[in-house]
Structure formats: structure tokens, C-alpha cells
Amino acid sequence: MIAAEMIAAEQAERGSARLACLDARGVVRHWPRAALASLFEPGDLVVANDAATLPASLAGTHCPSGAAIEVRLAGWISAGDWTRFAAIAFGAGDHRTRTEDREPPPPLSPGDRLALGPLVATICSFPGHPRLFGLRFSGSRAAILGGLARHGRPIQYAHVGRTLALWDVWTGIAADPIAFEPPSAGFALQWGTLAAWRQRGIGFATLTHAAGISSTGDAMLDAELPFDEPYRIPAPTAAAIARARARRGRIVAVGTSVVRALEAAADATGGVRAGEGVARGRIARGTRLRVADAILTGVHQPGESHFELLRAFTGDAALARICAAVAGRGYRTHEFGDSMLIERERGSRGAGGRNGVRWAA
After folding, report:
1. If you average pLDDT over residues 266-290, what whole number do you get?
2. Which of 51, 73, 112, 163 has most Cβ atoms within 10 angstroms of its Cβ?
3. Are 291 and 239 in contact (CB under 8 A)?
4. Taking all residues of the chain, what is their mean pLDDT, rounded to a whole number?
5. Parallel, antiparallel, or unpaired: how do β-strands 52-53 and 177-179 relate?
6. Which of 125, 102, 108 is nearest to 62 (CA)?
7. Exposure of 307 in the CB half-sphere (CA atoms within 13 A)
8. How far apart are CA 346 and CA 26, in angstroms?
């Protein structure tokens, strides 16, 4: 194996990663991200997404025209069906060009065959946009997985100059490969942090959520993000959430994908059901959160679907304060950047969380 470390791990080792905290009163504080080990209180529960990232970018040829094409797998048509995916397409070029500046794909039609390295796929449907389509692979699950592993590359964008390897986009807790882009908030988690939480009586649990793409290069499609995303919540995780809520501990979601899964699985009282499901639609301003009391996330920009989800946690004035604070200090954005920890504002607590409790430090 090539001796390479994940970009996020390199930042953590250098001690350069930073954390901006917005508490329930709207107060912003700054910490090194290593301070996560000393945050939270006994009885709190941190929940993270353990999905591994697929090599979901596939270069190839549109067989009817002979034109170059890049296909990015963007969603599951049916969870666990390795033959059918939702996908988006670009013409010639690669990630070094900004997504919004990429050439369009050649004209696509149902039944068109795509040669994607060792894989052969057929376009099977169009949900209403010329760049978004349903794709069906030929072959067995093993052959498809093998083809992805040999030929696919991680989806990436122009803000990362170097070409990413698959291990660059796996978090330290990555397990089942079902995500199309990394659940990148999990890059903040270090084994020493988890050990420190355990010693201090802070719980840690995982779920698996198929994190989707963050940009399609088209404003109309981006307005539809996130697409429907399947998730699986293990019974021990659901039980840990119930115990934390009974003790009035806070539920801290590591990333927007965890918030989507928890809220999709929640009943009217905030109880979380174990099992599989699909997270649908957007969480945004006005959404009543029933489970998550705080979110650990990356530094997002207004207008992004991830940022819209943050508006369910706190008001626009508080978000404007933390955005101005991180911009003023030059926080790194995107998936390998710095982090924000946002607590739900006072008066919007679920049944389980403490109201306005100061973060321990």
C-alpha cells in the first residue's frame, strides 16, 4: 500500500484543525479541534455515520456517439441493489474544472450503453433532467464491486488540487461502502477523542447512512439536493439514544447525514426506531427537530443544502455570527476543512436534551 495519510488526518496530526462552537445562547467560541475530547458532559451521546465511501466517479464512453463521459453515481434506486443507481453525467474533462463549468454530457437516451472501464451500463430512465438518469449495470454484484474498485475514483471537486485516493475519503470508522461522498464530519473523530469520551462517561454510537453528492453542477438539480438516502440504525444505537434521553443527556449528531437519519427514524415523541429506512426531503428552517440537540459539522456556505439543515438548529442571526467568525479567522471550508459545533437554540429542545447547558471544556 502507498504510504499516505488522509488529508484530514494530516491536519489533525499537525494540530491545525479548528472548531467553532455556537451554544444555545448564540455565543461563539473558538477551540482547536482536539478540544473535542474535553467537550460534552457525562450522559451525552455522540452519534456518527460509519458509511464508507464508494469510488463513485467513472470515466468512460457513451457508446452511441463515441464521446467521452464521466458518470457519477448519485443515489440508490433501491437500497442494496448493486445493479441500479441514480447517476449524473458530465462530458469530457475531470475534477480540475469547477463542477458548474463542466461540459454537458452527449445527448442521452433510454437504452444507451455506457462503457465505463470494465463495467457496462445501460441508461434506463430519466427523472426529468437531461443530466440525471437511472443506470443499470450488467453483471453480478461481485463483478460490479470489482469493477468499481478497479476503475472508479472518489468523487471530488476543483478545490482539492491533488487526485484523491479511496482511503483519503474514508473516515476512521468507515465500515459498509454505501456512501457516494464521504460523511466528512467524521474526519474530526480521532481514536484518542473516543477513548477520552469513554473515560468521561460520554457515549458513542454509530449508524449507517448513504451520504449523497453535494453538487451536480446544475443549479436546478442542486435545488433538489439531498436526494433520498437510505439508512440503517442498529438496535444498540437506538437503545443508547433512549438511555441518553431518559437521563436528559444531549444527542450530538456528527454530520448532516446523521441528523437526516435520526429525524427520519424518530416518532412523535423523539424515540428512534432501529432498522432500515429512507431519509427523504430537506431539513431546513422551520423543521422541528425531535432527536438531535447539537451537530458537529464542517464549515458550510449559505445556500448549500447542508447549510439549510443548520437553520433547523438555530436562527439566522446566530448563524450569521458564526459564519462571520469563521470567515474572519480563515477557517477551511469543504470536506477536509475545519469544524463547527452548533447547539440547538434555547426554547427548541426535544424531550431529551438539557436546555442551554454550557459545553464543558
Report:
1. 95
2. 51
3. no
4. 90
5. parallel
6. 108
7. 16
8. 9
Cell numbers that stand for 301 in this block: 456556505
Q: How many CA atoms lie within 13 A of 119 on its CB side?
A: 29
Among candidates 184, 180, 162, which has minimal Cα distance to 58?
Answer: 180
CB-count exposure of residue 131 (10 Å: 0-12, 13-18, 19+): buried
The cell numbers describing 177, all together, are 461502502
- Are 333 and 304 in contact by the 8 Å Cβ rule? The answer is no
Q: Give the separation between CA 157 and CA 99, rounded to whole angstroms.
A: 7
- Give residue-wise pLDDT tens across range 89-102: 999 999 889 999 99
Topology adopted by domain 7-53+163-343 = QueA-like (3.40.1780)
Q: Break the chain into its structural domains and give their ranges.
A: 7-53+163-343, 57-151
As a whole number of angstroms, the distance between CA 244 and CA 241 comes to 5
Question: pTM, whole model, 2 decimals?
Answer: 0.91
pLDDT at position 127 is 81
Q: Residue 128: how many CB atoms within 10 A of its CB?
A: 8
* Cα gap 278→174, rounded to integer Å: 20
For the cut 80, the answer to whether the pLDDT of residue 59 exceeds it is yes
Q: Which contiguous run of DSSP H or E holds residue 193?
A: helix 191-199
Whether residue 1 is predicted with pLDDT greater than 80 in this model: the reply is: no
* pLDDT, mean of residues 21-31: 95
- Cell numbers for 38: 474535553
- Residue 35 or 129, more confident: 35
In Å, what is the CA distance from 26 to each residue of 99, 315, 337? 35, 9, 23
